[in-house]
Write a structure and sequence with these properties.
Shape: globular
Largest sheet: none
Strand content: under 5%
Number of helices: 7
Number of strands: 0
Distance between the termini: 72 Å
Structural class: mainly alpha
Radius of gyration: 22 Å
Helix content: 40-55%
Length: 182
């Protein structure tokens, strides 16, 4: 094989390899569109997903979040964001005062704080009230229905762990898909 021909072949192979390296990350994000096979409530699932088995109380709380979302006249996406937020904040458990383990004075499904104006302890521990309060905050976020779930939730919650909400999007989407019409 002559030297010019060999250098041309190696040069083309090198360009193809380099193009693959740079195009790979772009192609990897090309499928970050809505998740196929789920309800339209999922905009795009980000990152590694977590999942827990729900007991009767947690399932009832998820259904209460869905009912409050419908009462507020909001779409499934709002319920997905709410349930994912509650999964992160309380694992869908209606938290009372946790003593020394309590994060400040955080209570309820969303760890809302009476001292931050979310309501009284009695109101915050009412799943319907706490969900409507969360949704009121969500509605004030411009474009909440089109942004990544974790960004929408973080804007309302102002958490020390802003990206943590994303891990619950698939389970929240599945819960809403299973219970929205029931």
């Amino acid at each position: 094989m002559n030297t010019i021909f060999r250098k041309s072949v190696l040069g083309i192979a090198g360009l193809a390899f380099t193009g693959g390296i740079f195009a790979g990350p772009v192609a990897a994000h090309a499928d970050a569109a809505p998740v196929q096979g789920t309800t339209p409530a999922a905009v795009s699932v980000q990152g590694t997903q977590s999942k827990i088995d729900l007991n009767g109380e947690q399932t009832a709380n998820a259904k209460a979040i869905i009912a409050a979302t419908k009462k507020a006249g909001l779409p499934e996406r709002a319920a997905v964001i709410s349930i994912a937020t509650s999964l992160q904040e309380s694992k869908l458990e209606n938290l009372g005062h946790l003593g020394d383990a309590n994060d400040h004075d955080s209570l309820g499904l969303f760890q809302q704080r009476p001292s931050s104006g979310w309501g009284t302890p009695e109101q915050i521990t009412d799943p319907g009230y706490s969900t409507l309060s969360f949704l009121k905050g969500l509605k004030q976020v411009d474009g909440w229905d089109k942004m990544p779930l974790t960004d929408a939730a973080q804007t309302v919650q102002v958490s020390a762990y802003p990206d943590a909400y994303a891990q619950w999007e698939q389970q929240a989407t599945d819960i809403v898909a299973h219970n929205w019409n029931s």
